[in-house]
Every structure is written in structure tokens, then in C-alpha cells.
Specification:
Elements: H1 8-16, E1 20-24, H2 28-51, H3 61-83, E2 89-93, H4 95-102, E3 109-115, H5 123-134, E4 143-149, H6 154-177, H7 184-189, H8 198-223, H9 228-231, E5 252-257, E6 274-279, H10 290-305, E7 310-315, E8 319-320, H11 325-334, E9 342-346, E10 350-351, H12 365-376, E11 388-391, H13 392-395, H14 419-429, H15 453-463, E12 467-470, E13 478-480, H16 486-504, H17 520-530, H18 536-552, H19 565-585, H20 590-605, H21 607-619, H22 636-643, H23 654-680, H24 687-702, H25 704-712, H26 721-740
Parallel strand pairs: 3-4, 3-7, 4-6, 9-12, 10-13
Antiparallel strand pairs: 1-2, 5-6, 7-11, 8-13, 9-11
Helix pairs in contact: 2-3, 2-19, 3-17, 3-18, 4-11, 5-6, 6-8, 10-14, 12-17, 16-21, 18-20, 18-23, 18-24, 18-26, 20-21, 23-24, 23-26
Bound molecules: uridine-5'-diphosphate-glucose (UPG) and manganese (II) ion.
The site of uridine-5'-diphosphate-glucose (UPG) has 20 residues, from strand 3 and helix 10.
Length: about 750
């Protein structure tokens, strides 16, 4: 519509329309009523435990208390998980309105990509992410892409150089055919039907270029170094000498493409975005604070070079899938009424390599579609790392009350300074000394000392008076790589559980620090995550105590014929039916939901438990924060089993010994219980043990893949015989001890 067509009033009206809209999810009333009935059931269970305590001296008194404590914890935890379901909201940005109002006043955006290890995070993966963000539907002179390489590797640097040359072909190709996704690897992996059009021909040509580049990068990786003839072509390689190691090197900053340079153009003559390689200084004796340290160095280095008011952070494995994402995110920051107070906009983290039935339950889809949207409903969306847009001011530690005015449109451009000068200045900012005796890692930037630097930083920002938004776009904005083996998945979960629990005891505990800044319901919502590690204790109790008591014929649950039986069954059945319904609503299959049940038991009894223990150690000063990088490498053998949805155990870690022992314990308990009923009791009084036997039976069903890996499978991913022997011995000893004492 031309400007002439609309009267003055109409123009005004359009410019007053909000840039985004918040809609509440439906059926909230119905859900609240339904949840109340479960709550009544939970209270009845507690009442049953309190009114039926075995008398002193009677068998199973301690077991009874243990069950009561476990049910008390589950009940309270359930309440936390409700607060994320009462106020689920979904956001809708209007990018046309943004263009209409601000097309010539769009702010600059800095995009940070983090990588840490060329072996676990192959450079070809990293540059796919970089290439995917070099061309958004956004003015290229307003985009700057920074790669932080904590691996300090010339191989990654080399890959980035290759990517910068390739981008000159890739961007025009994407533009010409409106190609998406803009990660070449993901794009070429898609099936393309037409074969002889102009598009197809050009695709073949560019695919060849891409594959040649990938080969060069991969053979350098195999060689372990960049070939001499290539090294000669870029002065950047001079930074690497044989003495440089991952944990021991000076700071390196290289502006590979200078977006200010009018000669920095693609093959069509269009401007390219700025592209910067950074490896912050590392010395073995100094802690480097993992991703948080990298992000803080990036914040400073970028402030010297492009200083955009908005920052997007991506992990190296998470490519951009939607070219409009930047515009959509800006709708939130630039909304006239509510945009001012928004510190960050978090997108869900979807994955590209999830199997049909979500083996390992890695897609976290219910968390993304419901729980995080629920916390977002209270204006306190969680910052969960990759896929988050930040307002630079809030990320640099500014309080909301000190913040003035809108996003700056023109970044403070460094027009006069040469690339060399900028690089030298940036190197100082990326050096270790720079942070000494400053507030970086405490009050400024990402917070140090926690293995979920993101969540704790998000809370710190909210506590400074800012609000945040969680936004699920219709077309997925980013796609990443999820773990493909059980071990890697559990190590990742352990890191999360440990870090989340640490927040509970830190000064950023939402209940204390967040008091009056974050709504109570949101505080409870955060606890649903922060309590992952502690919830392992009641779970272990529920997995261990019933089978042990079965062996001795001690009854812990009401009889089938008693009315108390009802609340137990009601809570159990409705809760699980609801979770199944929720999973299916999010698009999961029944089998995926079932995998999730297996994974919940495995995670809670191992990862979360170890996370809890390591937290205690940390509190006692016995250990320090660690960060085990998630491997993004997939070997062919493993990948085949992953595709077939066969769980990959394949090593003999403590974790697998525990999983197998618990599975066997429940099997033995079940057998013992049946024997008790049939032989010892001759079916008399068997009602007393029914519920307990059912619980063991469920545990057995959930553990079927474990038995299979122990006794049936013989591929490389099965459980090694050492684990089989350990767990049989351990479970038998436990049973034997139970029976003789
Ligand atoms: O010393 C380090 C360690 C890690 N990273 C980077 O941090 C990112 C996340 O590491 P990853 O091993 O992939 O961990 P995940 O558990 O998959 O990451 C999730 O959890 C992290 C911690 O909560 C968040 O930072 C991430 O954004 C989120 O995707 C990767 O890009 C790494 O390259 C560094 O830059 N330096
Ligand atoms: Mn990751």
C-alpha cells in the first residue's frame, strides 16, 4: 500500500501497532481443574503414609519412611512442574511491520559462533554454521560474524579462510534461488527433485566446489596440520608456530573479511559481512572458564570492531535454518511499548539428527514446546545458550534502570582505523590479563564458575530488572547436533544437572536473588530444572526400596482392596496418560514417549545422581567446575545403530554398571516377590504385594533394552561382559544381604 492511499490517521495507527503479540495457550481452565485432582491425589498419598506408619519394631519401618520422603519430594517437585504449565504463552512477531517502520533504521547485529576442539567439533561442521549465518535476509553491511576458537587451531582458522572464499560463490547462489537452509551441508543433504533446470546445473557446480573445499579441509585435518603451500598464502598463519598448544597460546584476532571495505564483495559484486577469527589467550596455569570465557572475550573484541547493539550466539554445530530469524528477533527488541525492557530473546534448540522415535529422548521437545514457553509466560524466559539474541547492554552487565533509549542504529563505526590497528586493539581485549581485577565473569558478561553459564547468566540479567522472551518460530530457526551415544548423552545431562543444581546454592538462586524481580511462579518454574540433580535421590529410593522389600515380603503399598489404593493408581495413571498426551501433542510417537520413560529412569539414577555428588564435592571444595565438550563426531558403525534406534552402550563406565545393577535388582525383586506369593504365602494375602510387584514389573519393562544389551546383543554397542559380571555379582550380593539381615 502506497503512502498516498492512507490518510494521516491510518499511518499513525499502523505505526502504533505492536511489533509482536503474545497469545496464551488454550484449555488452561480445563488443565487447572485436572491438575487440581492430581494434587488431591498426591495429598491423599501423603496422608496414607502419615496415618499408616509401621509401629516401632515392626518390619519395614525405615523403608516406609524412605518411601514417604520420596513421595513428599515427588509431590513437591510435581508442583514446580505445574507452574510451567499454567501460563504457557506463544509469541508472534510481525516482521512486515518491522520492515515498514524501520527498514532504513535496522540495527547492526553481531553473530558469535563458538568452537572448542577441532577433533570433537570438526572444522567442516563449524564453517557450515558460519556460512549459514553469513547471509540472512538482512543488510550484509550490518552483519558481523565472529568465530571464537577455544581450540586455538590453525586447522579451524584454515577452514574459516576456505569458507570466506567459498562464501563468494555460495551467497550469490543462495540469493539467486532463495535457497534454504544456508548451511551447504544441510542444503545438499536435502533431496532435490528437478534435475536439468538452470538451478540444478548451478547446484551441481557449486556442490562440486563445496566438496572440493571440504576435502581440502578434511585432508588437512587428517594430516594434523595445514600444508606449507597453503600457509604461504595468508599472513594469519604466522601466528601459529610449533610451540602453540590448545591451552597455551597468545591471543589471535584476524579480520578475514572487513565489511567496511568496498572491495569485500561476492561474485555478484554485493557487499559481504565482516568475518573475524578469534582465539583468546590461554595459559595452562590460568582458568579459562570455558564457553563463558570465550563469550566474554567475544563481547569485548566485537565491541572494538563492530559493536552492534544486538548479539546472536550460536554453538558451532547449530546452523541457521531460517533466513528471517534476525528480523523476527528484532521485532521484540524494537517494539515501541514493550521492547525497551527485553534483554534477550531465546529460541528453542532443535536438532537435525533426531531419530524417528527420539532414541535417548534428546530432542527435549516437551521442554521446548511447553515448559520453556511456560516460564516465558512470566516474562522470565530461560537463557539456554545457543540460539539466543541479546541486547549488548544487558549482556555487558548493565542494569535495566540505567538503560536509556532505543537500540542504536548506527554502530560506532571504526571508519578511520585500519584492519591492523583494530586487530591489535582487539588482541589486548582477548588477552587474559585484561580480565584480572575486573567485574568480567561476576557482574559483567557471562558468569563464571558454573557449567550452565547460560542459565545462571540469564538469571543474573533478570535480577537486574530486565525481561526476556522465549519465541518458537513456525519455521525452525536453528538446527543442531544431538548426542548419538548413550554415554555422550548422559555426560551432557550430568553437566547440565550439576550446573543447574549449583545455581540453587549460588547467589543467583531464583528464590533469594530473584525475590521481587522474578515472579514466584517463574521461580518455581526454574526450580523444575534446578532440582534435576536432587530429584535423583527420591528416584533411587523408588527404584531400590520396593524390590528389596519384595524379597523379604515387606509390603509398602496399600492392598488392592483398600480405598487407599485409589490415589496411588489415580496419580500414577493420570500423570502418565497426561505426559503421553503432551508428548503426542508435541509431535512425538508413542515409542518416543516410551524411550523417554527409559531415559528418565537412566538419567535420574546416573547422570543426575553424579551431578548431585559432584556438586557436594564442589561445595566442600573438593573439585572444580569442568566442562566436558559434547562430541559432534559420528562414526559409521555408531551411526548405523543410531539410525536403527538401538541404544549404544559399548563401554564399561561406572554409569553402565549402575544402570545394569539396578535393572537386575528389580528383576530379582520381582522374581522374589512372585515366589513369596506363590510358595510362601500360597496366594494368601497376596493383595498386599500387588502394587509393589507392579512397580517392579514396570521397572523391568522400562529396562528391557538394558537386559537385551546385557544378555542378548553381541554387536559393538552392547554392554561388555565385565559389566554383566559386575552387575550380577553386585545385585546378588545386595539381595543376599537383604535376605540374611
Ligand atoms: O571451553 C569451551 C567449551 C565449550 N565451548 C563451546 O560451547 C558450546 C557448547 O558446548 P557443547 O559441548 O556442545 O555443550 P552442549 O551441552 O551441547 O551445549 C548446551 O549447553 C551449554 C551449557 O549449558 C550451552 O552453553 C550451550 O549453548 C548448549 O547448547 C560449543 O559450541 C563449544 O564449542 C567453548 O567455546 N569453550
Ligand atoms: Mn552442543
Amino acid at each position: 500500500m502506497g503512502k498516498q492511499d492512507v490518510g494521516g490517521d491510518k499511518v499513525k495507527e499502523i505505526s502504533l501497532l505492536p511489533l509482536f503479540e503474545t497469545k496464551q495457550a488454550g484449555f488452561r481452565g480445563v488443565y487447572k481443574m485436572f491438575a487440581s485432582t492430581i494434587f488431591v491425589g498426591i495429598c491423599l498419598i501423603w496422608l496414607y503414609r502419615l496415618t499408616n506408619i509401621p509401629r516401632a519394631g515392626q518390619q519395614g519401618r525405615w523403608a516406609w519412611f524412605a518411601m514417604f520422603m520420596a513421595e513428599l519430594c515427588f509431590g513437591l517437585y510435581w508442583i514446580c512442574t505445574q507452574s510451567v504449565r499454567w501460563n504457557v504463552v506463544y509469541q508472534h512477531p510481525f516482521k512486515e511491520r518491522l520492515s515498514h517502520r524501520y527498514e532504513n533504521k535496522l540495527p547492526a547485529v553481531d553473530i558469535f559462533v563458538c568452537t572448542a576442539d577441532p577433533k570433537l567439533e570438526p572444522p567442516s561442521l563449524v564453517i557450515n554454521t558460519v556460512l549459514s549465518v553469513m547471509f540472512y535476509n538482512y543488510p550484509p553491511n550490518k552483519l558481523s560474524v565472529y568465530l571464537s576458537d577455544d581450540g586455538g587451531s590453525e586447522l579451524t582458522f584454515y577452514a574459516l579462510l576456505e569458507a570466506s572464499s567459498f562464501s563468494k560463490h555460495w551467497i550469490p547462489f543462495c540469493k539467486k534461488f532463495m535457497v534454504e537452509p544456508r548451511s551447504p551441508e544441510a542444503y545438499f543433504a536435502k533431496l532435490h527433485s528437478e534435475n536439468d533446470s538452470k538451478h540444478a546445473q548451478e547446484r551441481l557446480a557449486i556442490k562440486k566446489l563445496y566438496e572440493e573445499m571440504k576435502n581440502r579441509i578434511e585432508s588437512a585435518l587428517e594430516l594434523g596440520k595445514v600444508p606449507e603451500d597453503i600457509r604461504k598464502h595468508h599472513k594469519g598463519f604466522l601466528e601459529w608456530n610449533p610451540k602453540i598448544a590448545k591451552q597455551d597460546h597468545q591471543s589471535i584476532v584476524q579480520i578475514i573479511i572487513d565489511g567496511r571495505d568496498t572491495r569485500a564483495v561476492d561474485n555478484d559484486g554485493c557487499q559481504l559481512p565482516t568475518l573475524v577469527y578469534m582465539a583468546r589467550e590461554k595459559r595452562p596455569q590460568w582458568p579459562h572458564h570455558f564457553k563463558a570465557g570465550a563469550m566474554n572475550a567475544l563481547i569485548r573484541v566485537s565491541s572494538e570492531i563492530s559493536n552492534a547493539p544486538v548479539i546472536l550466539n550460536l554453538d558451532c554445530d547449530m546452523y541457521a535454518n531460517n533466513a528471517d530469524t534476525v528480523r523476527e528477533a528484532l521485532c521484540f527488541f524494537m517494539d515501541e511499548a514493550k521492547g525497551q525492557e527485553i534483554a534477550y530473546v531465546q529460541f528453542p534448540q532443535y536438532f537435525d539428527n533426531i531419530t524417528k522415535n527420539n532414541l535417548y529422548s534428546n530432542s527435549l521437545i516437551v521442554i521446548y514446546e511447553i515448559e520453556l514457553a511456560g516460564i516465558g509466560g512470566y516474562g522470565a524466559a530461560m537463557y539456554i545458550g545457543t540460539g539466543c539474541f541479546h541486547r549488548r547492554e544487558s549482556l555487558s552487565g548493565m542494569y535495566f534502570k540505567d538503560h536509556r533509549g532505543k537500540l542504536k542504529v548506527e554502530p560506532t563505526k571504526q571508519v578511520q582505523r585500519t584492519v591492523n590497528e583494530l586487530e591489535e586493539a582487539a588482541k589486548v581485549l582477548a588477552s587474559f590479563d585484561y580480565e584480572l581485577d575486573t567485574q568480567w565473569g561476576k557482574e559483567m558478561g557471562l558468569i563464571y564458575g558454573c557449567s550452565v553459564e547460560d542459565v545462571i547468566t540469564g538469571l543474573a540479567i533478570l535480577c537486574k530488572g530486565w525481561k526476556s522472551v522465549y519465541y518458537i518460530p513456525n519455521k525452525k530457526a536453528f538446527l543442531g547436533v544431538a548426542p548419538t551415544t548413550l554415554n555422550v548423552a548422559l555426560v551432557q545431562q550430568k553437566r547440565w544437572a550439576e550446573g543447574l543444581c549449583q545455581i540453587l546454592f549460588s547467589k543467583y538462586c531464583p528464590f533469594i536473588h530473584g525475590h521481587r524481580k522474578i515472579k514466584l511462579a517463574a521461580q518455581l518454574g526454574y526450580s523444575a530444572f534446578l532440582l534435576w540433580a536432587p530429584i535423583s535421590l527420591p528416584t533411587l529410593c523408588y527404584v531400590i526400596v520396593p524390590p528389596i522389600c519384595l524379597l523379604r515380603g515387606i509390603s509398602l503399598f496399600p492392598e488392592l482392596t483398600s480405598l487407599w489404593f485409589l490415589p496411588f493408581t489415580y496419580v500414577f495413571v493420570t500423570n502418565n496418560t497426561y505426559s503421553l498426551f503432551e508428548a503426542m501433542w508435541c509431535g512425538l510417537t508413542f515409542k518416543a514417549w516410551w524411550h523417554h520413560q527409559t531415559m528418565v529412569v537412566i538419567r535420574r539414577t546416573t547422570s543426575y545422581f553424579f551431578g548431585f555428588i559432584d556438586n557436594l564435592k564442589k561445595i566442600l571444595g573438593l573439585s572444580e567446575t569442568k566442562f566436558a565438550i559434547t562430541s559432534k563426531l559420528i562414526t559409521e558403525d555408531v551411526s548405523r545403530r543410531y539410525e536403527q534406534e538401538v541404544i549404544e552402550f559399548g563401554s564399561s563406565s561406572t554409569i553402565f554398571n549402575i544402570i545394569s545393577t539396578l535393572a537386575l535388582l528389580n528383576l530379582f525383586g520381582f522374581v522374589g516377590g512372585i515366589k513369596k506369593i506363590v510358595i510362601d504365602l500360597g496366594f494368601k494375602d497376596s493383595n498386599q504385594l500387588t502394587l509393589q510387584i507392579m512397580i517392579c514389573a514396570l521397572m523391568i519393562l522400562v529396562n528391557l533394552p538394558v537386559y537385551e544389551a546385557l544378555f542378548v546383543r553381541n554387536d559393538k554397542g552392547c554392554l561388555p561382559s565385565s559389566v554383566m559380571i559386575n552387575s550380577i555379582v553386585l545385585a546378588s550380593v545386595i539381595c543376599w544381604l537383604v535376605l540374611i539381615f
